[in-house]
Amino acid sequence: MTTTPSPRNQSSSLRRALDILAHIRDDTGPGRGMSLTRIAEELGINKSTVLRLTTPLIDADLLVRDRETGWFRLGHGTLRLGQVYLSSLDLRTAAAEPLRLLQQASGETCHLVVYEPPDVVYIDKVENETNVRMASRVGSRIPAYRTAVGKTILAWLDEAAFGVVVAAGMPPVTEHTVTDPARLRAELERVRRQGYAIDDRENEREVRCVAAPIFDHTDGVTGALSVSGLATRMTPARVREIAPVVARTGLEISHALGSSRSPEAGH
Question: pTM of the entire structure?
Answer without folding.
Answer: 0.70
